[in-house]
Design goal:
The chain folds into two domains: 188 residues, Glycogen Phosphorylase B (Rossmann fold), CATH 3.40.50; 163 residues, Rossmann fold (3-Layer(aba) Sandwich), CATH 3.40.50. It is built from 15 helices and 13 strands. The strands form two sheets. Strands 3-2-1-4-5-6-7 form a seven-stranded parallel sheet, sandwiched between helices.
């Protein structure tokens, strides 16, 4: 019997970390053949050429260079065009049976749109979510409409995918991919972690991960300055900064991180591309995570630490009780930090539950990829939800 060819696309180290166990499950499944495409930040020297990390684990069938030389709107649009052409050529050569993509970044939009034109069924992971401050919102829902199988992280997200007209029989709640890493990875002990990042932790420690809010114009510098001013005078506190993705105005934030950490080497460090293993290991030793990354919502609650979620980047996502929302100004951020250290909040953290599932999504996805009939996937009828206005 011919193996079903499953082509998985990855565009960043963080996303690869989320996909790792699924890639591994496909690779060892007797009925499936893994095809792997690396693109986006994986192939950029600026972001650490992280395709080399993938090659330690798996064979990469195709590398698609998007030429990520610019973080302007024009530069990103150009990269998307280059990528779509290259994806089309790759699919024509690999001839996959199903394309698997995760999330909502513009690299993945190019991968999905090329697959749609190539008449290849698409399986989409983490659809139906809401992030009102980002262009990712429109990209995510667009990919949903191009896709034929939907693997969501929560019931609310499944309902939103169905609301977009997707048939409930093709929508599967599997849970969050990040929770699986927490369940299956052996995280680094403190001394080993410190050695790996070449940085000593302090009595108190925080993780700063802040990205541009891509539906806002020219707010990155101002908002990140407010964060730096809010955390600079914290006593006995060391800070780990993770750098941004290849988003509009990302270079502004990265240069500010470099400037701050170079002046404060005794208490801070900047890491270009942390990877899931190091990132999750770090969360074990943090007092809280501060910024606007989805990791503060999806993974941090499992470690029973607080998340200070700044601004609108994650507005609309399901949040655990460990998440403290605040505005992107010094007064609001300071108030959130005070709350994070309060006795009442620390007691609340002891009983926090992660709303993103039980940590076994990959095996659920594999079962469906194996059993689903792909002969009639391409033609979809719009599923009408009955509701009254």
């Amino acid at each position: 019997m011919m193996k079903r060819k499953i082509c998985i696309v990855t565009g960043s180290r963080a996303e690869y970390g989320l996909l790792y166990w699924l890639i591994k499950e496909v690779n060892v499944d007797q009925n499936l053949e893994l095809q792997l495409i690396a693109t986006g930040m994986h192939l950029s020297a600026e972001f650490g050429l992280t395709y080399k990390e993938i090659e330690k684990d798996f064979k990469i069938n195709k590398k698609i260079d998007m030429h990520l030389s610019s973080d302007t709107t024009e530069g990103i649009s150009r990269s998307m065009g280059i990528a779509q052409k290259s994806f089309s050529e790759a699919y024509n050569e690999l001839k996959p049976d199903i394309i698997v993509v995760l999330g909502d970044r513009y690299e993945i939009f190019s991968a999905a749109s090329a697959a749609m034109i190539s008449r290849i069924p698409i399986a989409h992971i983490h659809g139906g979510e809401a992030t009102e401050g980002l262009i990712d919102e429109a990209i995510r829902h667009s990919i949903t409409k191009m896709s034929h199988l939907h693997f969501t992280a929560a019931e609310e997200y499944s309902k939103r995918v169905i609301q977009l007209g997707e048939n409930p029989s093709k929508v599967f709640k599997v849970g969050g991919m990040g929770v699986e890493n927490i369940k299956r990875l052996t995280l680094f002990p403190k001394e080993e972690f410190e050695k790996l990042i070449d940085f000593k932790l302090n009595i108190k420690n925080i993780l700063v991960t802040f990205h541009p809010v891509t539906l806002e114009k020219n707010t990155s510098k101002k908002q990140f300055s407010e964060i730096l001013e809010s955390i600079d005078d914290l006593e006995n506190t060391n800070m780990i900064f993770t750098k941004t993705n290849s988003d509009t105005d990302g270079k502004i934030i990265n240069s500010m991180i470099d400037e701050y950490t170079s002046k404060n080497q005794n208490k801070s460090i900047a890491i270009t591309s942390m990877g899931q293993h190091n990132f999750l290991s770090a969360l074990q030793y943090m007092d809280f995570i501060i910024g606007n990354s989805s990791s503060g919502l999806l993974e941090a609650p499992s470690f029973k630490i607080g998340t200070i979620n700044i601004g609108d980047r994650q507005k609309g996502r399901i949040k655990a009780k460990s998440v403290i929302d605040c505005s992107p100004n010094k007064k609001s951020i300071k108030h959130a930090i005070k709350k994070a250290y309060s006795k009442e909040f620390q007691n609340l953290l002891k009983n926090v539950k992660n709303p993103y599932g039980d940590g076994h999504p990959s095996k659920k996805i594999i079962k469906i990829l194996n059993s689903i009939s792909i002969d009639d996937l391409l033609k979809k009828s719009f599923f009408n939800v009955k509701f009254s206005l």
